[in-house]
Amino acid sequence: MLIKDVSLLQSGQLLKGRDVLIQENRIVRIGRDIKKENEDEIINGRGKLAIPGLVNAHTHLAMTLFRGYAVDMPLMPWLQEKIWPLEARLTAEDIHWGVKLGCLEMIRFGITCYNDMYYFMDETALATKQMGLRAFLSGVIFDSRPEFKGEAEAFIRRWKGDELIHPAVGPHAIYTCSEETLSWARETAEKNNVKIHLHVSETRGEVEDSLKKHDKTPVEYLESLGLLSSRLLAAHCVWLSEKDIGLLAQRRVNVVHCPVSNLKLAAGIAPVNRLLAAGVNVCLGTDGASSNNNLDLFEEMKMAAIIQKNACSRPEALSAKEIWDIATANAYQATGLALGLAEGSLADLSLIDLRKPWLMPQSNILSLLVYSMADGVDTTIVNGKILMREGVIPGEAEILDKAQERFERLTS
Question: Which of 101, 145, 366, 393 counts the highest number of beta carbons within 10 A?
Fold first, then answer.
C-alpha cells in the first residue's frame, strides 16, 4: 500500500507532499516520490493529513448499548440502580453487537487500538478482530464472581500471541476485589507477562472508604500489595495525594485520564498537570459510552486541556503539544507496542481531510487537532488493512440495526 502526496506532522509543523509506503503490517518508508511497485494499492493523500493511530486507553466497549440509558446520576447509584441490573441480562450476542458498534465509532474517530475491561471477552475479541482493530482485553474480576478468575486465565492462554488481541488481567477496583483477589491478579499478570487494568481513586468516597478500611489511600494500598508497576494501567486517578503521585511516578504506573466521564458523573478533576510534572505517564480514555456518551478521543483532548487550564488558573497549563503527546506517544509507551507514524512502526494510522471549515485557516495544526476537530477522519488503517476509506465502513448499516435490536431486548 502506498499513500501518495499526504501531509505529515513534524515538530508541530505541517509537511506537505510526503509518501508513506506500507508493506504487510509495517510502515517501511516515509519520504518524497516513492515509486509504486506492481502490487501496491495507491491511496491519494492530497489534501489530507496522516496522523498516527489514537489509543483509547480505558473503555468498556460493549456499554455502547447503554448509551443514553441512565443519565444525570452519581456514580454509585448509577451503577447499582441502572447499569448493574442491565448488565445481569447481557448475553454473548449482546456483547458481539455492542462491541462492533463501539469499534465502528472508534474507527470513525481515528482510534486504532483500545484497552477494555468487561464481560464475555472471547466474544469481544472475535468481534474486534472481525472489525480489524487492535485491543488489550481483560475480563472484569469481582469477588462476587470467583469463577471469573478461571475464565480470565483461560482467555489469556487462548489469545496470548495473537496479532491484534492482547489479553490482560482486569480486577475491577479495590472496593470490589479483596486483598487475595488483587494479589492473584498481580501474580497472574506477572506469570503471563500481561498488562493489568484497574479502576483507581475514581471518587472521593473510594478514597475515604480505603482510609477507613486499610488506613491507606487506594494507591498506598495497591503499593503494599505490589500492584504498582509499569504493567498497570490505572484508570481515572482523580483523588490523589502528593504521596500517591510520587508512588505512581516511582513505580512507572500508566495513569489513564477520562475527563468527560469524570465530569459527567461529577467524580472530580484529575491532577493531570501535577502528574505530568512528577513524571507520570498519562494517557487518555473515554470510559464507556454509557458514562461519556461517545468514544471521541479528540473531544477528550480538548476537554482535558481546558479543564486543567481552569483548574490551574493558567491558560498555558497542558498545552496542545502536551495533550497530543498524551493521546499518542504516552499511550504507545503504555501499550509497549511499536506504534506511531514512523518507519518500522506498525501500520496503524488515519487520514484527516484538511478541507473542513473547522480546520481552516491552517495556522497551528496541533491547536486545530486538539481544540477544533469536530469530524473529518477520512480513512483509518490498522495493521496495514483499510478499515474505513473515504468515510465508508463495510457492514455499517447492519451493525447499527443489530445494536438497536439488542438494546431493545435488554430494556424490554
Answer: 101
